Amino acid sequence: MQHRYPEGAGLGFRRELISELEAGVPDAIRFFELAPENWIRMGGRSAKQLRTFTERHPFVCHGLSLNLGGLRPLDIELVTAVGAFMREHGIGLYTEHLSWCGDDGLLYDLFPIPCTGEAVRHTAARIRQVQDMLGRRIAIENASYYVAPPGAELSEAGFIRAVLEEADCDLHLDVNNVYVNSRNHGFDALAFIRELPLERVVYMHMAGHYVEPDGLVIDTHGAEVIDPVWALFEQVCRLTGPKPTCLERDFNIPPLAELVEEVARISATLARAGSATKELAHV
């Protein structure tokens, strides 16, 4: 199947939504995103259901367990399986987190990488290895974190830039993650984003979060996107131009109609950014 790449606004492909989506995919949803780890070994009815959607709609693979910043050897079997899955379903884009998630086994969480030169070289080498195996560029997502690793030699934005440049890969910009980190660690979200290599942005995420009673912001993907994150997304789109953007909703999943309202808002924001870009081009 020919590889297809996302455009416009998309939605995370959740099993809880399949029955509603089978009745008809709303026009606002231009693509879907899935975690390949949850589908590559799936057979039977679930595999057939997925195939009916990938034949008709673009999909993005967003990995959860590649452990790019970890010390264990890269999971070659997983990378090979992801590549085969992408070819089978015509998926053109694969993204992963700039984090580590494995030690003796999978830790089922995404932990921050120390912002050091050694970590830049280590992580970039693993990204290049994945790209070589897949025969394509991948995009790396900025992660949320709650405790900063010690020994930093670079700022977080500087670390992200250094990894992407050394690996020669693309950036998956998660706007909510930047907002969450800015609240928890006390920095200006837009100023942080301006320090990133925005010319490498090929994909974005929007999501909701939860605020603990003590003020800690947790990246849950379990609530509606809040107004400050929408405002930040609007500003980001002015800087990057319209990039395909997915709404993440992994918990407390509401009826499809409610999610479509948020997807449509993403689409409208991207359209405004596109119009502004065209106007500037004619100035």
UniProtKB/TrEMBL annotation:
Pfam families: MbnB_TglH_ChrH. InterPro entries: MbnB/TglH/ChrH, Xyl_isomerase-like_sf. Belongs to the UPF0276 family. This is UPF0276 protein IPL58_07160.
